[in-house]
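hey can u check if this looks right to u? its 524 residues, i copy pasted from the old doc so theres a chance i mangled smth
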Amino acid sequence: MNYLLTGATGYIGKHLLAELLRSGHRCHVIARQKQGQNRARVLQALAPFALTEQQLSERQLTVLSGDITQKQCDLCAEDLSALAAVKLDGFLHCAGLTRFEQHLATTIDATNITGTCNAYALARQLKITHFHHISTAYVAGDYGKAFSAADLDVKQGFNNPYEASKFAAEKFLHGQAVHDDGFIHIYRPSIVVGGHAVGENNTVSTLYVFLKALYFIRECCRRDFDNGRKKFAALGASAEADGFFIPLRVAASVSATINLVSVHIVTDRVLDSLQEPVQQALTTTALIGTDFTLTQVRDAFSKALSITGVQLVDECVFQEQKRNIFEQKFFRSTHVYLPYMRHAPLFADAGLSPHPKNKRRYKVTPKFIADEFLKVLDRQQVKTAKGALNTLALDVLGVKDAHDYFARFINQELGESFLHRIPYVDSKIRFHIVSETPFDEIIHFNHGRVQIVTRDEDNKADCTYVIEQSLFTEIVQGTTDIRQVFFAGKIKIEGNKEIGLKFGFLFGEHYRNIDDRVVDEVVA
């Protein structure tokens, strides 16, 4: 069988692709080209699945450069012709942006709404009969009653632009199903967990963000106590026989639940549908797993991390009382999930009953999730010896590129210790970070303060750094010394080179012992 996929480097997409290749199917993948690579990105996403050389060969896996936010998914004429010559048995649209921040609404809509429209239009153009779309159970939004697979528009509101965008994508597909002669299959998983959860650039989402944030705070405590600095002790933390006590209140309703479903349940249900597709204009499958209370999740995560002191408190109490440093940092990393800490939608569809032989494969208890994910985090810490804590901090803050980095920098969510070290600097530095989504702004470092300034006659850059995104990432992670790459000619300095070199030296000094700086910033 031949299938066309989007989102193959994403969480669900890579699991589906791996199973399809393992089953001998021929797969054509549309992937955005980053740093001039697309096939390499897909192969990297598939690396944990231990596929054979044959299964990963170009004969079985074709990777096409494209972008779902553009018409015809931005495929070139040659690739469109090649696809048209193949009898494609299904289009699996797995691409999506799982971000909840309001300021990203335009980007989220471009991926989740426009991307779905473009993917569906391409399926029609290529005469693909079956279109499979990965949605979310959270199209239920804030609906207060039981929400089933048969429901969609029940006049609900939405907690964030992600929910709204997935709802709009489904509305579009419902509209197409009325007059088109193909078959649309929609899958609505709840919170997907298990399998290989870490994405590109170590990204994670939903439940794993909380686990990673707790892991980060624990590792900061460990480093602080191991170095004998004990700054965290002054904040109420203490070393215990087998872990740490960390005073951390989390805003949440103790009666709230979260519904977790194994990524393997999701992929198996989609694969079943591919083998025996329903011949209906539109079919919606709710993939609802098991409910767990937030108390159960807290207890499991705390035990796995060997920490105590985490309390779930009423949101009003949390807002009224002064937050300690740990609470400030944790809340900053997880606040976009606050609506789900208050209450969960009521899913009408019963929990799934997996086949007995897959019982372990479908396991989704918080303890199992925590134990498996912590193994991954521990391996990453060992592998990334230099700058490991800083890399973890960037992951927790959701820093994926220069746009994210400087947004956090301007908001003083990172870089505070650097600014404290340069109170005498008054320079306007233009950062031109080269990538598919380039960053090109003037940053004014003004006596310990920082802001982006508009480029005009009064705001000219003293110097400009031209840096590739991949190299910029290595620098801010602390794995590459900016001074060395300066002299290797990998960073281009325009304008006043003296200022550029001096500022680069200061930046390099800051990142030379970046893990200690991270601890300083946590307790600042």
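The chain has a mean pLDDT of 91.
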